[in-house]
Amino acid sequence: MTIHAPAAGVPPYVLISGPESVLAERALASTLEALRAREPDLEVIKLYSEGYQSGTLTTHASPSLFGGTKAIVVLDLDEAPDDLQTDVLAYVAAPAGETTLIVTHKGGTRSRKVLDTLRKAGARVLEAPLIKSDGDKAQFVANEFRRQGRKATPGAVQALVQAVGKDLRELTAACAQMVADTEGLVDEALVETYQGGKVEATGFKVADAAIAGNAGEALRLLRHAIGAGDSPVPIVAVLAMQLRQMVKVGSAGRGASAQLARALAMAPWQVDQARRKLSGWDPEGVGWAIQAVAAADFEVKGGGRDPVYALERAILTICRARNPR
Length: 325
Fold this sequence. Notes:
Elements: E1 13-17, H1 21-38, E2 43-48, H2 56-61, E3 70-75, H3 82-93, E4 99-105, H4 112-120, E5 124-127, H5 134-147, H6 154-164, H7 168-181, H8 188-200, H9 203-211, H10 215-227, H11 232-252, H12 257-264, H13 268-278, H14 283-303, H15 307-322
Parallel strand pairs: 1-4, 1-5, 2-3, 3-4
Helix pairs in contact: 5-6, 5-7, 6-8, 9-10, 9-11, 10-15, 11-13, 11-14, 12-13, 14-15
């Protein structure tokens, strides 16, 4: 049987692979948008793994009396029962004309045979990899502004990642809000205007002040963060992360930020930031600071009686290590 793709540029099979839900949703939306650009009356049928009944896919793929193009979207194949996997394999073996099959799979080994079959059949694979590191999040934010026709300074990107934190959906919403409400270049002052309260309540400014040797400011920011409901655990994690980055950059020697960033699996702005933080530090002091943070990490995770006091003590030790005299 000849397979016909309903829209130019979209193959009969599309596989969206990866756990990052925001990227997967965008890949699905862009694929359907491309199909609708050619066929505005496209019929979209979504099949869910949960509660799937055998033969449902085959029924929907059957030609309609009135004709028309279809997109059958199989969601979360990684959770699919055997009946759904069997039906997808049967469909690929005997596909329907005027129909595009789109499959999403969050990862893992389940449904491996189906994935291999789709790839062998020439499926377009759209990746939705998990975005975990600060460097990856910064790249995502920069691309998000660029996608919407705006430019953002590296400092603004860094500040937004620090303010909003781990959730990619929240980062997306924060970018959209600033794009909708403002014009021109997105800089640190703009981010501070929109996210300043969040920035102050994170461990990043606490860590910045401590590593700069400013004990009074670090303790003030810590109390502000704790008062706002932050846990000592992520603040210790930020301190540990920044000290590790200082060690990595300090031991890497000289070189362009972009070149070192690739070698160290960091973003260029993180390399520049670590270099600035290293000013005034010696290796022995960094070692003391790392030991203090390691001890605090143990205590805030249940090894001590007072997590906040443990974190305060670590901050004071870091400041003394930065200013040994």
